[in-house]
Amino acid sequence: MAYLNKVLLIGNIGRDPEFTVTQTGRKRASFSLATSRRYRDSNGEQKEQTDWHTVVAWGKTADVIESLGVHKGMPLFIEGSLSYRSWNDQNGQKRYSTDVIIETFQLLGSRQFNTSGQQPAQTYTQPSFQTDAQPPSQMPEQPPISSMYQTQAQTPPPPEEDDGLPF
Fold this sequence. Notes:
This protein is mainly β. The protein has one helix spanning 59-67; strands spanning 7-13, 18-21, 27-40, 46-58, 75-88, 94-107, 123-125, 148-149. The protein has one domain (7-39, 46-129, 136-149): CATH 2.40.50.140. The chain contains one helix and eight strands. Strands 1-3-4-6-5 form a five-stranded mixed β-barrel. The protein is globular, with a radius of gyration of 18 Å.
């Protein structure tokens, strides 16, 4: 049986990314992303609901987010997976969090959000491994490398017990 853990979000960054380095030396970027949806209530009035998501990037992905100057207010497309974690706070209360772990992201919008001087709609993708390798002539066409940031495929590390973070 095949399993799938996939999340696609388009929204605006709610706070500037925070960058930390774990005790094992892995870089971590985290920020919030706001997504909105519109609906009609029982009276027929149009309403808008905003949901806030905690987004996390690891390793080279975090490096790219930092180098591109990603910041609050920027529109962003994210493709990733859900990760659940729990911890005990200072009062001994059990806390829970759902994070979106970035696999691919794309900066959206106009050049006003682009502080790095590059074209808008930049895409960053971590290459994935294929189990049934195809000859290069039969592989699907890739976008031009100038609009894609690629690194070695990485998987998020297992949660560390004591990484200095309160969660």
